[in-house]
Amino acid sequence: MSDDPTPRARAVIFGSQQDRIEQRLDELDPDLGGYIRDFAYDTVYERPGLDLKTKELIACALLVSLGSPPELRTHLRGALNAGATEAELRGALMMCVPYLGFPRTVAAFEVLRQHLGTQRPAPTREAGPDGADG
């Protein structure tokens, strides 16, 4: 057991949902739950080189590519828990458009909208040089 008071990555990512998420995984299959905890979170996520916020932004983009809304919701929340701003999440999701296309990206923005509990439109682009949009 480490004396390091820094929370493990999965504790930050899962936040207040940690018990529920781990119980769900264990109910699917205890071995699967263990592999996800031990390998994905306690090994891969704990590697040095990238901060947790960056890892979570990458995870969000990868989950958009896979079309995995429940897991995306977990990692959108995890990115926020790790210090990402809404603008950074929107930026990471927007990077999916040229590589994954509009349908998956639109679906990801819907997951983000639901998570944030907002009905407000996304920020608009800045006005062009003549003062008109776009």
TrEMBL record:
Keyword Lyase (UniProt): yes
What does the UniProt keyword field contain?
A: Lyase
Question: Mind telling me which InterPro entries this protein's record contains?
Answer: 4CMD/NDH-1_regulator, AhpD-like, CMD-like
> Which Pfam families does UniProt cross-reference here?
CMD (PF02627)
Gene3D superfamilies under this entry? AhpD-like (1.20.1290.10)
Q: Which residues form the Carboxymuconolactone decarboxylase-like domain?
A: 30-113
Top enzyme class: lyase
Whether Cell wall biogenesis/degradation counts among this entry's keywords is: no
Per the UniProt entry, the Enzyme Commission number(s) are 4.1.1.44
The GO terms this record gives for MF are:
4-carboxymuconolactone decarboxylase activity; peroxiredoxin activity
Q: Output the PANTHER family linked to this UniProt entry.
A: 4-CARBOXYMUCONOLACTONE DECARBOXYLASE FAMILY PROTEIN (PTHR33570), CARBOXYMUCONOLACTONE DECARBOXYLASE-LIKE DOMAIN-CONTAINING PROTEIN (PTHR33570:SF2)
Output this protein's name. 4-carboxymuconolactone decarboxylase
